[in-house]
Amino acid sequence: MCIYHSEGLSLSIMVTKTLCVNITLDVRVPESPAVALFGSDTVLNCSFSAVSEFNLSDLSVFWQLSDTKRAVHSFWQSRDQLSDQEERFSNRTSLFPDQLVSGNVSLLLRRVRVADEGSYSCFVRVQTYGSAAMLMQVAGNQSQITRDIQLFNSSLFVYVLMLAVVSHASLFLQLQDHLNQGTFFSVLLFSVKSVLTVILEPSSTYSCRLSQPLLGEEAQASVTITQGLVFPPLALWLTVALAVCLLALLVALAAVCRRKIKESCEEMRAGEEHIT
Questions:
Q1: Which domain of life, per UniProt (predicted)?
Q2: Whole-prediction pTM
Q3: What pLDDT does 23 receive?
Q4: How many distinct helices (H) and strands (E) make up the chain?
């Protein structure tokens, strides 16, 4: 903004001096990240304090992605200007026209997607300009865990299956057994399946825990292998067959050893008779 005034140097000479002051518009956004629910509508809050009264035709508002500088929503000359809008935001954004003159340039974002997560910059220009950036995180609040147990035919191992149906990324899955050992990893839409293979032990409990740190929510499911768990028929026959084979091997080994011992004794007896 430039301020003009005159100073009289003499009765006949007037010198005009120009003082230019750089005034930045005060643009405000939330300091904390905004958390939006997947599939719902959310508002990215942004406001400014006008230096003086202004006409709507003097106002320009630009929302863009902070990292790529792609246009999310633009407004100038008293109307929306969406020719350069990023395609994935088409028909999903709007300002609040009746609140623009009061300094509210917040952005309404409809049907939030996982890909919408990130940093957004709000640029405002009225006589002078200002900008601010804010972070939006996307979360889901629909989580379900189903459980299943499947036995190997060998009957020595068991599958513990935990299937988590979730509706957003940034969920952490912990699958742990009674030894309190688990695995953590991050997932995206929409489902996660974790299979734990363990040695078959009765009275063992396995649990699966899903946590959503953005919303402070958790979902958990557990499954217990009880004493009454029985082997499948095929596994039982396989165990019996292995036992029979082992027994036959032991009998054959005993017979061979007995024959070898008998032959050794006969050779020793024959040697003694030859000496005498």
A1: Eukaryota
A2: 0.56
A3: 59
A4: 1, 20
CA distance 51 to 2: 14
Residue 148: pLDDT band with limits 50, 70, 90:
low
Q: H/E element holding 249?
A: helix 233-275
36, with CB counted inside 10 A (0-12, 13-18, 19+), is buried
pLDDT at 45 over 50: yes
107 Cβ partners below 8 Å, 6+ apart? 43, 44, 46, 63, 72, 73, 93, 94, 95, 120, 122
Does 31 have pLDDT greater than 90?
Answer: yes
pLDDT of residue 54: 84
Domains observed in the chain: 26-139 (2.60.40.10), 144-225 (2.60.40.10)
